[in-house]
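Researcher: Structure for this, please.
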Amino acid sequence: MMYLLFAAIATLSLSHTATASCCTPYSYQLSGTGWLGQIYHVYPQLFALDDFMVAYDIKSERGLVNMTIRDVTTGQTNVETTYIDKKEKKEYVVINNKICVEIPETGRGVGNCLPPDAKVVAKISILGQVNCSIFTFSTSSDSGSMDYLGLTAVIVSEKCVPMAAATLFRQENTTAGVASEIDGANVVLYYDAEVLKNTDILTPPKLCSKAVSLETSGISRDNLVFMQLMEGVESFDVFTILNRLTRMSSANENKSD
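Model: Predicted structure, token format:
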């Protein structure tokens, strides 16, 4: 079934080859909710993205990602909030509102546009009132031990604000002797999209004045969801996160060990 879904979206993306620029407003925030289902070692798994919020300001080069992720099978819930400051070359991750971890300098920036290879595959109207476009784009990576391929379809309004998105993915461990292949999909629905009125929310909390390093925190880098999502990414934006949300499963798996 997964291969049929890949083929369906691939066929859709070939039906229209137009490439168009699409960027969200320069200072914005979006909230959403969603689900991720996957087949891992033959076993089905389901994660709920109970709460998901992205906020950013291009001018100050700061961003915020807040995620509440729940393993539907075990009921385990983790809350992770990441603060990005390009100018200060700093990133902080607050875990379950209890500990703030300072991430080593990544040089990661903040963006607000769809990938250059994103293509318009259809134009639709919701309830005859809201005109939208459907874009598709793909992401692939080879981290040395893990191959990843994700194909995303996202519905955006005339102002390029995401309304809904779905991603199909395959992730395969290429380490010799390790059988770790994952097929899956995620769906995210957005609400409360609006211009960011208060940029103070992009400032790390007082807890981060006593931030600890990864080395002294006792937390593995592999256990930080955002670090998993953004591995190898130079600029964080809502569209990149959409495509890479599929990676949150592996990080949560490590947390449950």
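Researcher: Any notable elements?
Model: The chain has five helices and 14 strands. The first strand starts at residue 27 and ends at 40.
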